[in-house]
Design goal:
Blueprint: H1 5-9, H2 24-29, H3 41-118, H4 128-140
Bound molecules: zinc ion (2 copies).
Length: 152
């Protein structure tokens, strides 16, 4: 006489009327998982389907994560490229500014020498007095030129 799992575990006498799906003990205590008539194929299929669903979800999440990783890597690369280009442009501008500053300083010195020489000709018809004041204020403004932002 075969015994169901519950009766075996509890050392009970397993009895079932012919054709019954549950034994007397399991019917008495309301145990639906008697198992006297063997494993329930539908329950096993449900369990299998649940496992497959969880596995499918894991695969789908893995694929989404991989896509996000790839997108993030591409964005990082693009941002790095753009930042490098901006940095190079900034360096070039700083170098150009420094070159302009040096040229202006040379031209200013040459201009000052020229003005000093011209201003000795006091007998000219030109109003040197007002020009002298104008040039003096221009030459004094050389201090207003901003300091270099990078060493060159
Ligand atoms: Zn039983
Ligand atoms: Zn039973």
């Amino acid at each position: 006489m075969p015994s169901c799992m519950r009766c075996r575990e509890n050392s009970l006498t397993c009895r079932a009327p012919p054709g019954a799906k549950r034994c007397g003990e399991c019917t008495r205590v309301g145990n639906m998982q008697c198992g006297l008539d063997g494993p329930d194929p539908r329950a096993l299929q449900r369990e299998r389907a649940q496992i497959e669903a969880v596995e499918d979800e894991a695969i789908a999440l893995d694929e989404e994560a991989a896509a996000l990783h790839a997108a993030a890597a591409a964005e990082f690369a693009a941002a790095a490229t753009a930042a490098a280009a901006k940095s190079a442009a900034a360096v070039e501008k700083s170098q150009t500014a420094a070159a302009h500053r040096r040229r202006a300083q040379r031209q200013r010195a040459a201009f000052q020498a020229k003005v000093t020489k011209i201003l000795t000709h006091e007998d000219s018809a030109i109003d040197w007095a007002s020009m002298k004041a104008d040039f003096a204020s221009f030459l004094e403004s050389s201090a207003a030129l901003p300091a270099p932002s990078v060493a060159s």
